[in-house]
Design brief:
Layout lengths: L2 H9 L14 H7 L4 H6 L1 H15 L4 E2 L7 H7 L33 H5 L1 H9 L9 H27 L3 E2 L5 E2 L2 H10 L1 H10 L1 H26 L3 E6 L9 H21 L3 E6 L19 E4 L5 H8 L4 E6 L1 H6 L2 H14 L6 E5 L9 H14 L2
Parallel strand pairs: 1-2, 3-4, 4-5, 5-6, 6-7, 7-8
Length: 377
């Protein structure tokens, strides 16, 4: 099997010739490869060279999970409150990028989204940090730069695929409306209060935004040529919502979005940060054998195998703390447990628990990448 076949077999709940390994590695590979985080985010060529050195020294991988490499300008463009970006303004070039949570949406706007139109409303929010988008020329220039950056990322994806490294999702990043509103518009505290104070208004805004979220994801799929989407989930997890709230607000969105992608032959990769363990039973309502449950080290991945192993591919979950603070023997022992207890009958992809820390021990990363060759059943 090649890497692509190995990954697709696991996604379909089959048993590949060995467990595939698909980490989130770009922050680490930049540091290990001798470039700054700024270069990784803004210079695709340097990012690829750093990754090449990392894989040459530490071992091969089957695929690249979500990568921010080359997407710095796009990230500055699309968020109403731009992330803190290394090497931008007063930030050091080798610092970490960080999302900034800020309330940019008033409570009255839940009912205004439909009146204004969701696309216009989102563009107005983008103008808060990018005033140039207010003119046709400024908007055209920004879209042109974004298209050029995406084209460079797409060339990189094709180049790595030719070398046997499959890009899992490229820049195909999608959010459910509730996740989008909470993370980028309303802020966590205000959003949670709204669930109690304005429940019907929140639902109405979600319904209005859903087609736009689908359209944005579909555009990314067409541009990248990759028929998988990264769906980030954290604010609708069991760390933040009660079961009743999840059933009422979040589950209908996750079902609708996943069923939409699956109907189009596109695989949803559910990247679930925070603790989702209590909500695992609900995930059996998602299409069988068509989704990937990607856990970050907080949820109980072994409970996921027990409850969902016959329903969806499980991906994860070597913890960041282990990769940074542990020893190679500990990393190998944990990977062996994942491979044998979760991957013995297929339907499993080994990955880091969210991203490999920028300052992880190289010998620990090497142990993780080598484990699928040493121990796969």
């Amino acid at each position: 099997m090649d890497s692509r076949e190995r990954i697709e077999t696991a996604i379909g709940l089959g048993k590949p010739d060995r467990v595939p390994v698909v980490p989130i590695i770009d922050f680490f590979s930049a540091r290990y490869g001798g470039i700054s985080q700024h270069d990784m985010l803004f210079d695709m060529r340097k990012a690829d060279q750093a990754l090449e050195k990392t894989l040459r020294d530490l071992g091969p991988i089957d695929g690249l999970h979500l990568s921010y490499a080359g997407l710095g300008r796009i990230m500055q463009l699309i968020f109403p409150t731009p992330p803190v970006m290394p090497g931008v303004g007063d930030e050091p070039p080798d610092g970490q990028f960080q999302f900034v949570e800020k309330t940019v949406m008033g409570p009255e706007e839940y009912l205004e989204i439909e009146k204004r139109g969701p696309l216009r409303w989102i563009l107005d929010k983008m103008k808060l940090s990018n005033p140039d988008l207010g003119s046709p020329l400024g908007l055209a220039r920004a879209l042109g730069r974004a298209a050029a950056d995406m084209a460079r990322v797409k060339r990189s994806v094709k180049g790595w695929r030719a070398r046997g490294v499959e890009s899992l999702v490229a820049f195909n990043i999608v959010f459910t409306p509730l996740e989008y509103i909470s993370l980028f518009m309303r802020s966590f505290q205000e959003f949670i209060l709204d669930l109690f104070r304005r429940p019907e208004e929140v639902k109405a805004a979600s319904r209005v935004l859903m087609p736009t979220m689908k359209m944005q994801g579909s555009l990314m799929v067409r541009m990248s040529g990759i028929r998988r989407v990264f769906m980030g989930g954290t604010r609708t997890s069991a760390s933040f919502l009660s079961p009743r709230q999840f059933e009422e607000f979040a589950l209908p969105e996750w079902k609708e979005m996943c069923e939409f992608w699956v109907a189009k032959g596109i695989t949803p990769v559910l990247h679930f940060d925070s603790d989702w363990t209590a909500f695992f039973p609900y995930l059996r309502e998602l299409p069988r054998g068509k989704c990937v449950l990607n856990l970050d080290g907080t949820s109980d991945i072994f409970a996921a195998k027990e409850q969902l192993g016959d329903h969806m591919c499980i991906m994860g979950d070597v913890p960041a703390t282990l990769l940074k603070l542990g020893e190679p023997e500990e990393v190998e022992e944990y990977c062996l447990r994942l491979i044998t207890e979760i991957g013995s009958d297929g339907g499993f992809i080994l990955s880091s628990g969210c991203t490999i820390p920028v300052d992880a021990k190289p010998e620990n990363v090497k142990a993780m990448l080598a484990s699928v060759h040493r121990h796969s059943p």
